[in-house]
Write a structure and sequence with these properties.
Blueprint: E1 3-8, H1 14-23, E2 27-30, H2 31-37, H3 44-53, H4 66-73, H5 77-104, E3 111-114, E4 129-134, H6 137-148, H7 152-161, H8 165-169, E5 174-177, H9 182-194
Parallel strand pairs: 1-3, 1-4, 2-3, 4-5
Helix pairs in contact: 3-5, 6-7
Bound molecules: adenosine-5'-diphosphate.
Length: 198
């Protein structure tokens, strides 16, 4: 009945690990997706965010325009902190509710909360065990530039803004090093899964 908090930097391999865990039977909650859903009109974050940042962050169809919002918060640490103070607790509550609903359905295998910001957003209480995926900076940059078309400068900037691997590791029960092949990653995930216990 474990809930695994799965985190790691951009390009570390979190989504890849999530997919492997799904094939082993885990149920996955993708925090990024939850973040998109709570922004929809009528959903909890929509009113608070539009009240705080003004109607100019809305698109014509009244959805929150993430590009416009991004332009505001990425140029102002204060605005970003205000946005996070609204959105992170709402996401926490939503993810917790989804975990509870899944358990109420009778699902007994592990649930994975995949969240790049699990630690930064104070979501550790959602998880019984924390798994950190880490990879060397060069490999992370190479993967996201080659496979997602991000520029190397953008990838560097994102990494510089994140927690370091050393900081994440302090909170982890399981550290998955992902510098080798996909096959090696798969073996590591299988091993950690087998050791998960009740
Ligand atoms: P994250 O979710 O942490 O940002 P992803 O799981 O999306 O990272 O991985 C980034 C990219 O690198 C993906 O395209 C993925 O297929 C690839 N990748 C991940 N691990 C490996 C690996 N061990 N070898 C080769 N490619 C990998």
């Amino acid at each position: 009945m474990k809930t695994i908090g799965l985190t790691g930097g951009i390009g570390s391999g979190k989504s890849t690990v999530s997919k492997l865990l799904a094939t082993l039977g885990a149920s996955i909650i993708d925090a990024d997706r939850v973040g998109h859903e709570i922004y929809l009109p009528g959903q909890p974050a929509w009113k608070q965010v539009s009240d705080t940042f003004g109607q100019e962050i809305l698109a014509e169809d009244h959805t929150i325009d993430r590009k416009k919002l991004g332009a505001i918060v990425f140029s102002s640490p204060d605005a970003l902190a205000r946005l996070n103070a609204i959105v992170h607790p709402i996401m926490f509550a939503e993810i917790r509710q989804r975990i509870q609903a899944k358990r109420a359905e009778g699902f007994t295998l592990p649930i994975v909360v995949e969240a790049a910001i699990l630690i930064e957003a104070n979501w550790l209480p959602l998880a019984d065990t924390v798994w950190v995926v880490e990879t060397d900076k060069d490999a992370a940059i190479r993967r996201v530039t080659e496979q997602r078309g991000m520029s190397a400068a953008d990838a560097e900037a994102r990494i510089a803004n994140q927690l370091s691997n050393a900081e994440r590791r302090k909170h982890a029960q399981v550290v998955i090093r992902n510098n080798g092949s996909l096959q090696a990653l798969e073996q590591h995930v299988q091993q950690a899964w087998d050791q998960l216990g009740e």
